[in-house]
Amino acid sequence: MSTTQDSFVTAARDEIAALDVRLIATINARIRKVAELAEYKQDHGIAFVDPDREAWLVGYLKRVNGGPLSDEGVEELITYVLDLVKREVNR
Questions:
Q1: pLDDT at 46 (0 to 100)
Q2: Distance between CA atoms of 79 and 36, rounded to whole angstroms?
């Protein structure tokens, strides 16, 4: 039987695609909020990047993570998201 005919595979793929849609929506919402914050900071003479806040966020997300994502995975993911969002806001 091909995987395209397997109902479990099809259902799992559909669920994964729906999760990916939610992930993209969440990232887009984060970009919009960070852009709003960046504009406020610029208007008020506050630095856009706050390394202490970013370090706090990584630590906080590691503490609240229920797994199965590892601490290393959390750090890698959030570091990537922070970098991506900064690039997108600066476009």
A1: 98
A2: 20
Q: How many CB atoms lie within 10 A of CB 69?
A: 13
Q: Which two tokens stand for residue 22?
A: 């939610």
What residue ranges do the domains of the chain occupy? 3-89
Q: Please give the single-letter amino acid code of residue 62.
A: K
The CATH code of domain 3-89 reads: 1.20.59.10
Q: The pTM is what?
A: 0.90
Angle between helical axes of 71-89 and 7-43 (0-180°, round to 10): 50
Instruction: At 2, give phi and psi (nearest 5°).
Output: -80, 155
- Quote the CA–CA distance of 17 and 23 in Å, as a whole number: 10
Token pair recorded at residue 39? 């504009």
